[in-house]
Amino acid sequence: MNRKQEMENAQKEAFALNMQNLREFLTMYASLTERCFCNCAVLQHSSKLSAQEKLCVENCTDRYISYNQRLMPTFAEHYQAKMKEAEKAAIEQMEKAKQEQAAKEQTTPT
Predict the structure, then answer these.
(1) C-alpha separations of 48 from 43, 52, 58, 106 in Å
(2) CA–CA separation, 81 vs 4, rounded Å?
(3) Which of 27, 37, 103, 108 lies in the 20 to 30 Å Cα band around 20?
(4) How far is C-alpha 20 from the geometric centre of its chain's CA atoms?
(5) What pLDDT sits at residue 55?
(6) 40-48: long-range contacts at Cβ-Cβ below 8 A with a sequence spacing of 24 or more?
(7) What does the alpha-carbon distance between residue 75 and residue 67 come to, in Å, rounded to a whole number?
(8) CA 7 – CA 83 distance, rounded (Å)
(9) Phi, psi angle pair for 41, to nearest 5°
(10) Under DSSP, is residue 97 helix (H, G, I), strand (E, B) or coil?
């Protein structure tokens, strides 16, 4: 595998990771929306929320966001460790490819 292919693979992996993060965020947002709506929207025949429903939604979202803010540092640590592992694996792969290329060049007659 040459450097260009390695870079393309790394870019594809980064894109896939970004897409996974986006999916997770959208899933979390959808979950928050559904949970708070189901818990708070009592009069579903009206197009507007009542004052009580609005307060309920605000409290629900505040609790959910507060929970996520407490959880985020743990997630960030885990994510950083995972990224370091992926970086280390990519470097090892590149080194292995270099060694294979060097060995191939040494065995190829000139």
Answers:
(1) 9, 11, 15, 75
(2) 26
(3) 37
(4) 5
(5) 92
(6) none
(7) 12
(8) 16
(9) -85, 100
(10) helix
Tokens of 65: 């966001």
| Residue 79: Cβ within 10 Å count | 13
Q: List pLDDT tens digits, range 69-88.
A: 888 888 888 888 888 898 88
- Tokens 């894109």 locate to 15
Candidates 30, 92, 26, 33; CA nearest to 57 is 33
Q: Which of 109, 107, 108, 90 is nearest to 1 (CA)?
A: 90
Is pTM beyond 0.70? Reply is no
Residue 32 C-beta-side C-alpha neighbours within 13 Å: 18
